[in-house]
Write a structure and sequence with these properties.
This protein is an all-alpha fold. About 80% of the residues lie in helices and about 0% in strands. It is built from 20 helices and no strands. Helix 6 runs antiparallel to helix 10 (about 165-190).
Length: about 425
């Protein structure tokens, strides 16, 4: 009965076009009352879900991403990538993916990466002779790398829920993020193979390359400082988020001087609004996860899924399909709280590594965010490019296929995720 009420009310609220966070919260309230608990208990469960030190990283990383954008780092990274590879045919497509990888190491958010880069890169690609629909599709797909390459808000949430090391999970995401980037580059080259309108840029001089590198070096140092500090034992992943904020403020105020004191209020308000949405989702989803556990719904659903097949490869494929479908409709941070209590016991039963599971789960939702009809990144890119959902869907297919192939690689070859941390002696 509890399962029917929880999932039935949740999908009803989603169909009524309520925000996912509100749908989860209302469904959780209904489940709490059905379990005979008071609304005071609901509030206490919400508080317990978010009162964890590791979650302090989320508002700090969000603020750091906003600071880096206002500081002009994204624009300088794009210019540096342009002078390096912009003269190749399809060079702008490579620029989109490369800059997305670098900005992913700053923002930790997929829609934020699309929003920060799309306003510059989509017009640049159109003026360079690229089809606007294809340009928007590439930016939307590449933005998904933002939740794979560390520091990643998605990884922070997954590590907290599954009680594993955030720093180790960060390290597991580096190689898969780069592999996903290569997959999107190949998809982009396939998409433009017949286009005759692409303008080839002149090769930049050595002086221009040096100047672009000089301007971008502060942005290029950001992931080095954050990840180097974590793995050098200087600070924890949570503390690294605070370091990123201080670094962003320093660069914006004193190096590039594009952030003025009068901008700080708007910066803090923007990041606080984004952070509050994420934390509210986690609070409500935490209650839902607790209800799934204490009412044995998670256990029963796990047993039912295991009864479909005892073959680990089939189980992993079913989980991948589930994630790709769910990623089209459910916000990724909410989905972790919903699915982890159900799926972690299954993965433990078949002996699948939890860190590798984190990578392929997050990667699946990254692809889901660009899968029609409800992929969140698609709406952001459409808004920037001033095109319709039908337009962007006409060119997104190659990127969805490339992303799915990459996710299947991460799923069935977990060493792609585990290779780098094990090489560095990190236990995963």
């Amino acid at each position: 009965m509890t399962a029917i009420l929880l999932f039935g009310s949740f999908f009803l609220f989603v169909l009524l076009n309520l925000p996912v966070a509100a749908a989860i919260g209302l469904a959780s309230i209904a489940g709490t009352l059905l379990e005979g608990l008071s609304l005071t208990s609901f509030a206490n469960l919400m508080y317990s879900a978010v009162s964890k030190n590791v979650l302090l990283a989320i508002p700090f990383f969000i603020l750091a991403g906003v600071l880096m954008e206002y500081a002009g780092i994204s624009r300088r990274l794009i210019q540096f990538a342009l002078v390096c590879v912009g003269h190749f045919k399809g060079g702008l497509a490579i620029v989109v993916v490369v800059v997305s990888c670098f900005f992913a190491a700053i923002s930790g958010s997929s829609p934020a990466t699309v929003a920060a880069l799309g306003g510059i890169l989509i017009p640049a690609m159109v003026s360079g002779g690229y089809n606007k629909n294809m340009a928007a599709s590439l930016v939307a797909a590449s933005g998904g790398i933002g939740i794979i390459i560390p520091p990643s808000i998605a990884f922070v949430i997954f590590a907290m829920l599954s009680e594993i090391s955030v720093g180790s999970l960060f390290m597991c995401g580096i190689v898969p993020g780069l592999v996903m980037g290569v997959a999107y580059c190949l998809a982009a080259f396939w998409s433009i193979r017949k286009e005759k309108t692409i303008i080839k840029r002149d090769k930049a001089s050595l002086k221009e390359c040096r100047e672009a590198f000089k301007n971008a070096v502060w942005g290029l140092l950001t992931p080095v400082i954050i990840l180097g500090g974590i793995y050098g034992g200087i600070f924890t992943p949570t503390e690294s988020a605070g370091v990123a904020v201080v670094y962003g403020l320093f660069v914006g105020l004193f190096v590039y001087k594009e952030i003025k004191l009068k901008h700080l209020w708007r910066l803090f308000v923007d990041s606080a609004l984004t952070s509050s949405v994420v934390m509210f989702i986690l609070a409500c989803a935490g209650v839902l996860g607790w209800l799934l556990t204490v009412s044995d719904i998670a256990l029963k659903l796990s047993e039912n899924l295991m009864s479909l097949s005892s073959n680990p490869y089939i189980i992993l494929l079913l989980i991948n399909i589930l994630f790709l479908i769910a990623g089209c409709f459910i916000e990724a941070n909410s989905a972790y709280c919903i699915f982890l209590p159900i799926l972690l016991p299954i993965l433990n039963t078949i002996g699948y590594n939890t860190y590798a599971f984190g990578v392929f789960m997050v990667s699946s939702f990254a692809v889901g965010m660009v899968t029609p009809p409800v992929g969140a990144n698609l709406y952001v890119a459409c808004n920037i490019a001033k095109i319709s959902m039908k337009d962007i869907c006409s060119r997104i297919f190659p990127f969805v296929v490339a992303g799915m192939i990459a996710v299947l690689l991460f799923t069935y070859v977990p060493d792609i995720s585990l290779f780098l941390p094990r090489l560095l002696g990190i236990r995963v």
